[in-house]
Amino acid sequence: MSDPSAPRFIPLVNQRPAALGIPQAALDRHTLRPAQGLLADTRGRELRDLRISVTDRCNFRCSYCMPKEIFDKNYPYLPHASLLTFEEITRVAKMFVQHGVQKIRLTGGEPLLRKNIEILIEQLASLKTVEGHPLDLTLTTNGSLLARKARALKDAGLQRVTVSLDGLDDAVFRSMNDVDFPVADVLEGIQAAKDAGLGPIKVNMVVKRGTNDHEIIPMARHFKGSGVVLRFIEYMDVGATNGWRMNDVVPSAEVIAKLQTEFALTALDPSAPGETAQRWGYTNDMGVHDKAAGEIGVISSVTQAFCGDCNRARLSTEGRLYLCLFASQGYDLRSLLRDGSDDPMLASAIGHIWRERTDRYSELRGAQAADTGSGARRVEMSYIGG
Length: 386
Ligand code: SAM
Prior knowledge:
globular; alpha/beta; 12 strands; single chain; binds S-adenosylmethionine; 26% helix; 12-stranded mixed sheet
């Protein structure tokens, strides 16, 4: 417990560093490079997936993400004028799609807190990939507002949702979200999403040692055969406020070993290039994947870095382009949106930045001995989007 009489301060590491300017070379009228439907970075990684944070606010205070002591009423959340408007987001998204993006995920903060999010979804749903297909349009939510909003989200054109849920034990879950939010309401949200046709639904569980690792098996039992894909995420050293320690991480290998004490599992192939989760299917008596029983996934960004095929870019709430979840700085696309730059300039800037991309934080972290993360001033996940 923090001492309420103690002076309160926000550590320097929690302040957003200045944005990176757009490289001039990308904006020179004579050398502008239009989008050509496929971009590769310095390591040959294609740009396929865009995550857009639509708000830096959340109604949960999960200690591993937005600890109450830091994200209180004095926290300097972004003012409304700093946020990209829906029109600005859609304009940037369109340029990304012209560069080959096929999947857009809305996130945050809690994306369902952004007023009229359905309008943004409608705008994004009208975009087509360079091959002329609809985008894979999805959203990650804590589920608290899903029961109320699932139908409207589907009607607006959202295809599916990922819901975060860290356990089924009500006391454990209430303590992890730290706002006393009940499990039953999230489960109701998941059901509403299913009823609305927002599937296949994924449920993400961040596993923290000594906090909710005893919930691994009950969660698997609950979702097995339900059509929901449960995914276990290693607790990551994102941001600078969650006090991350390697000892708190439950490696995915341990999660799988624990599950195998009760369930027969077989490794499945990735369903898409650059997929974050390693898939495991429940097997039948013949040792064959039983599709009706379904599958689970593990996301091992700490113990098995997957930078090698990372095809994700991130657009922060205020329009900065980040090339890695663990980056400390992002490129200021908002300045281009607001200074009269036209679409070819915007597309050229995005292309230039991606082509120069070298990031592979998780691989490098794996090579370090320290168990406290790199200590770099990484931005918070609530700002950059999970
Ligand atoms: N509010 C939404 C939600 O709860 O899903 C979207 C934003 S949240 C930042 C996205 C995902 O990141 C959630 O599944 C959350 O559990 C996960 N997350 C946040 N901090 C994390 C950490 N330190 N390690 C692993 N996952 C984390």
